């Protein structure tokens, strides 16, 4: 299974950082993700073990009910990783 082979690295943005890869147990892709135009290109990853908090790895505060976006409101997030599908 692909999920068993998938590992992530937390807090790595420095080429001198030697992190330990973390295995994930579940991937939840946005239900309206469109591969062709990359809209709704976001997913939740459940780690097999809790993340170790450190300088480059910390908790994210979830929004309150006042902060939640309205339906069809545009939102932008930043991230990086693979930009190609290694299976193709």
Description of the molecule:
The chain is mostly beta strands. 5% of the residues lie in helices and 17% in strands. The protein contains 1 helix and 3 strands. It has one helix spanning 2-5, and strands at 7-8, 22-29, 43-47. Strands 1-2-3 form a 3-stranded antiparallel beta sheet. The chain starts with a helix and ends in a 41-residue tail after the last strand. The mean pLDDT is 78. Residues 7-84 form the Peptidase S1 domain. One of its GO terms (biological process) is proteolysis. Keywords: Disulfide bond.
Helix content: under 10%
Structural class: mainly beta
Number of continuous helical runs: 1
Q: Low-confidence parts lasting 5 or more residues at pLDDT below 50?
A: none
Q: What is the assembly state of the chains in this entry? A: single chain
Mean pLDDT value: 78
Q: Strand percentage, roughly? A: 15-25%
Kindly report the spatial arrangement of strands forming the biggest sheet: 1-2-3
Shape: globular
Largest sheet: 3 strands, antiparallel
Radius of gyration: 15 Å
GO molecular function: serine-type endopeptidase activity
Pfam family, one: Trypsin
Domain Peptidase S1: 7-84
InterPro entries: Peptidase_S1_PA, Peptidase_S1_PA_chymotrypsin, Trypsin_dom
What features would you highlight for this structure?
single chain; 1 helix; 3 strands; Trypsin_dom; 88 residues; Peptidase_S1_PA; 17% strand; mainly beta; globular
What is the gist of this entry?
This protein is mainly beta and 88 residues long. Helix content is 5%, strand content 17%. The radius of gyration is 15 Å and the shape is globular.
């Amino acid at each position: 299974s692909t999920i068993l082979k998938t590992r992530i690295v937390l807090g790595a943005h420095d080429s001198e950082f030697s992190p330990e890869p973390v295995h994930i147990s579940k991937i939840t892709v946005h239900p309206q993700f469109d591969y062709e135009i990359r809209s709704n290109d976001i997913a939740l990853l459940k780690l097999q073990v809790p993340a170790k908090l450190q300088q480059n790895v910390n908790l994210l505060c979830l929004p309150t009910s006042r902060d939640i976006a309205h339906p069809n409101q545009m939102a932008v997030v930043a991230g990086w990783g693979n930009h190609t599908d290694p299976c193709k």
